[in-house]
Amino acid sequence: MGFFEKFKQGLKKTRESFFGKMKSILSGKKLDDETKEEIEELLILSDVGFEATEYILNRIEELKGEDAYESLKKVLLEILNFNSELKIEKKPFVISMVGVNGSGKTTTAGKLAEYFSKSGKSVVLAACDTFRAAAIDQLKVWAERTSSTFIAHQEGADSAAVAFDAVSHAISKEKDIVILDTAGRLHTKKNLMEELRKINRVIKKKIEDAPHEVLLVIDAVTGQNGLQQAKIFKEFVDITGIVLTKLDGTAKGGIAIAIAKELGIPIKFVGLGEGVDDLKPFDAEDFVNALLEG
Ligand SMILES: Nc1nc2c(ncn2[C@@H]2O[C@H](COP(=O)(O)OP(=O)(O)OP(=O)(O)O)[C@@H](O)[C@H]2O)c(=O)[nH]1
Question: What assembly does the database describe for this protein (predicted)?
Answer without folding.
Answer: Part of the signal recognition particle protein translocation system, which is composed of SRP and FtsY.
